[in-house]
Amino acid sequence: MLNPTVPFSDLPPAETRLLKRALEVAPRALNPASRFQVGAAVQAANGDIFTGTFYESSSFPLGVCAEAAALAAAVTAGVRDFEAIAVVGGDPRSGNPGRPVTPCGGCRQRIFDVTGAPRRNVDVLCADLTLSQIYRVGICDLLPLPFGAEALPPSPE
After folding, report:
1. Contact present, 46 and 74 (Cβ < 8 Å)
2. Residues of the chain falling short of pLDDT 70
3. pTM here?
């Protein structure tokens, strides 16, 4: 079993900053049904950080994940080179911080596609709302046997 747990105090400054930015936006989630908070922050190679939070829709499949929102903000700004992404979440009403929140399957695919995997196996930092439990794992480990752009036919020139 993969055990990617790492203490917050052992993380380099860039990763602590990324986790703090994700934590900062988590309470902004629009979550009337679940009350679950999720924030994401993606770091571009130039050091810029883009954040996103999730929102629920009364038609549940129409909501947007925090990771998708953060990646969309970065891509909209023209970013194509990424260093890492952080995801922080949980139920603030719980007395137990629980385990780190990890990206859903769809977001794992989005991270894989947008960050240039498998050529770049960017780190995904996953944490609970207290930042007391953190996983650091490469996107290629979170999404084994992925479907990627190399599986598509070449585009006509």
Report:
1. no
2. 1-3
3. 0.91
